[in-house]
Design a protein that fits this description.
Strands 1-2-3-6-5-4 form a 6-stranded antiparallel β-barrel. It starts with 5 loop residues before the first helix and ends with a strand. By secondary structure, the chain is of the alpha+beta class. It is globular, with a radius of gyration of 15 Å.
Length: 152
């Protein structure tokens, strides 16, 4: 029997990973800092607003945020952004800023992840372990999304 890490168990607990969303929606995202972000996107089938809270992988400037689809291209939020890249981003002091999602190719994703690994080696190692535990894949694919925020 494969032993699954506590982090992998927690990340699969829907109510737990969704805890930041009410804070962002209430305008309290500043309490979560700049390392997390919430993306409001549109459901590709329902047309209804959907929300996901994710770790910021890179933020090279005030108008660009990179996030990872740790569970691959099958993640619902990733599929929704592929169908409709218009979204809103909340992070730090930024609240519900219009944005456009750009799904990076494999080379672009690898470049962003290499920078993340250089800046946060312990976090990168933990993230890889957790994703391997959840997906069961030895080398899981981690696509990156660049969120281009509109000027305020």
């Amino acid at each position: 029997m494969q032993r699954v890490s506590l982090a992998a168990t927690l990340i699969r607990t829907r109510w737990l990973v969704r805890l930041p969303i009410p804070l962002y929606r209430a305008g309290l995202g500043v309490l979560l800092g700049r390392r997390l972000t919430m993306i409001e996107h549109v459901g590709r089938s329902s047309g209804e607003p959907r929300y996901v809270a994710l770790e910021v992988v890179d933020r090279p400037d005030d108008r660009t945020v990179f996030v990872a689809a740790g569970f691959g291209r099958g993640s619902q939020w990733y599929r929704n952004l592929r169908a409709n890249p218009a979204c809103h981003v909340s992070t730090g002091r930024i609240r519900r800023r219009p944005a456009h999602a750009v799904l990076l190719d494999d080379a672009g994703s690898a470049e962003v992840l290499a920078r993340y690994a250089d800046h946060y080696p312990k976090a990168w190692a933990a993230l890889q372990r957790m994703i391997r535990d959840v997906t069961g894949e030895a080398e899981p694919e981690i696509p990156i999304v660049r969120l281009e925020l509109a000027e305020h």
